[in-house]
Amino acid sequence: MAGVYVHIPFCKQKCHYCNFYSVVSVKYREPFLKALLFEIGQRKSYLNREKINTIYFGGGTPSLLGFEELISIIEKIKNSFHVDTAVEITLEANPDDLNANKLKRLKNETSVNRLSIGIQSFFDDDLHYLNRVHDAHQAYHSIELAKKQGFNNLTIDLIYGIPGLIRKKWIKNLEIFFSFNLPHLSSYSLTVEPKTALLTFIRQGKMENIDENKSIEHFKILMEKTTENGYIHYEISNFAKKGYYSKHNSLYWLGGHYIGFGPSAHSYNGVSRQWNVPNMKQYIEAEKTKKIIFDKEVLSKNQQYNEYVMTSLRTIWGCDPEHIQNVFGKFYEEYFSKIIFPFIEDEKVYRQGNHYFLTNKGKLFADGIASELFMDDE
Ligand code: SF4
């Protein structure tokens, strides 16, 4: 099984913490769509007729797309690739873009069957700190409306570690989420990324900096409360009821192949990884020049091993030393088994059957543990 990712690089305004590629002007909307449809048709052999079981509209803000635009993109993908009849089609949406009529049309006129709503917080002051376009009322309302229109496969994003988000508020955010009885939650720690307004404002002393210890406390609460409420912590930032794991993200974590369309979108076919230039003007040009501009890297064996260790340890499926031996060789397996040992003694990793998993304590240090297990490229 393989996946298709479509990057819709438009936003109404830029959130302070965001470093994804997007533009706030809609003047390129029409040429962008033409270029996108051109790219989809142009690269139809990339996945070698592998069956597509997930299509994911990410951004940017895909909910800014009109129905005709959305339908034409899905049609083009279905005509160009071998798409499974049970394909999961996810659309990322911002609360302020969703109203009853739009959701009804989305449900009845398109084949989108999963919504991912960027809630981030149910409190206005947090949303203000993040510079989100929507307010807390729209956050609640969008979920209620989506449920009412029959979107059962519904997920939201929540951000923790925001300076104003005290413990009590974070618990309240989670309680509100549980009250909607949604099948899936993605929750991330606020991070200060390079080239973001947040970094600039913090450096200028205009905004409060984030506190690592607070994020750790919030993450512990998140793990505890989601477990209590029957969610499976199936990836470090993702929690789902049984049967509701994101097909798209699971594909990434399990090493599946995918093709990404749109500026800055990534693709991986098992041998190499490539990414389109994060530049709208250049992307649009492709339709005229008939040449898509991208960068490409062939992954070294060490990089492939590192990627496997990092992603597998973060998931419920764990890291399999037998897989390491079969794919990368005995040397890699021996290295992994030696380096992982102290983490077991430290109760950050445990072994069950043939696989290694992070304990809850280990999940707090996931990136650090993975990097210790990495193999350096010369
Ligand atoms: S977080 Fe989402 S909505 Fe906000 S600027 Fe980034 S892509 Fe746009």
Please describe what this structure looks like.
This protein is of the alpha/beta class. The protein folds into 2 domains: 2-253, TIM Barrel (Alpha-Beta Barrel), CATH 3.20.20.70; 301-373, Orthogonal Bundle (Arc Repressor Mutant, subunit A), CATH 1.10.10.920. Helix content is 43%, strand content 21%. It has 15 helices and 14 strands. The strands form 3 sheets. A 9-stranded mixed β-sheet has the order 7-8-6-5-4-3-2-1-9, sandwiched between helices. Helix 1 (29-42) runs parallel beside helix 2 (67-80). The protein is globular, with a radius of gyration of 21 Å. The structure holds iron/sulfur cluster. Iron/sulfur cluster binds next to loops.
Mind summarizing the main beta sheet?
A: 9 strands, mixed
Q: What's the CATH topology name of the largest domain?
A: TIM Barrel
Neighbour order of strands in the largest sheet: 7-8-6-5-4-3-2-1-9
CATH architecture of the largest domain: Alpha-Beta Barrel
Small-molecule components bound: iron/sulfur cluster
Distance between the termini: 34 Å
What low-confidence regions span 5 or more consecutive residues with pLDDT below 50?
Answer: none
* CATH 4th-level superfamily of the largest domain: Aldolase class I
Q: Which secondary-structure class do the elements indicate? A: alpha/beta
Question: Using DSSP, what is the number of strands?
Answer: 14
* Shape verdict: globular
Number of domains: 2
Strand portion = 15-25%
Query: Radius of gyration, rounded?
Result: 21 Å
Amount of helix: 40-55%
